[in-house]
Amino acid sequence: MLLSSEAAVSPGCRCPRVLHLPGASGAAARAQGGERRIPEALARCVLLWLGERLIRMASGWFYLSCLVLGSLGSMCILFTVYWMQFWCGGFAWDGSTHTFNWHPVLTVAGMVVFYGAGSLVYRLPQSWLGPKLPWKLLHAALHLMAFSLTVMGLVAVFKFHNHNHIANLYSLHSWLGITAVFLFACQWFLGFAIFLLPWASLWLRSLLKPIHVFFGASILSLSIASVISGINEKLFFVLKNATEPYSSLPSQAVFANSTGMLVVAFGLLVLYILLASSWKRPEPGMLTDRQPLLHDGE
Known about the structure:
With 298 residues, the chain is an all-alpha fold. The chain contains 8 helices and 2 strands.
């Protein structure tokens, strides 16, 4: 009996065009109920074809969402820079208010934009097939960049406070922010030690993966809450005079509130992409056995 595989697999699949199915006859056929066993090569090609179709279907909407996400992230940073430059006097590193202005720019860029981008690495359809190590390295590098920018932002605000004899870590904004940074540091070092270095066993990685994912989304949520409270706190400080109070909604308040809404929109879109099941990296064996690092269950 001959079975053609041309109708079932993609042109790039290296399956034979015609496969011979071993037939069973006599007592063997009766014992097997007349069933035919599909060759393993054809099964693999079908899985590959299905995987490629799945990737093509998911990638269209995914890349459209990434385009929107990239635009929102760029606007978050640019709006914050413009706010600090146009209304707050620009940037310096002398302990003055201009030193503080680095804080919102660096923390928005680090804890929101770069952190969100790093979190979505495993949602890229290209990461579904092939070795996982390059994507692990990109994931770790983006988050390390986010952490470095955030630390620089913290140094700026502590330098400003200490230079002007202002107490540190007294507001809800500061509590939310320092909690997010602390959890982020623990998350990065744990991820580096467990998921990037080769020593950890399969059961340990499987045990910690849901925790790693949960805290990843939680840290982003805390970061967004910290940014929003920080914008509000800054406006209360700078718009407290009688001629231009915050309650009158001057142009600076409108612009800063709009920046906060952009940050919220960016964060919500990141969380949506992270939670969308159709964009999650398939479990091991669902697509193809060409994934040498997917058998570890990550």
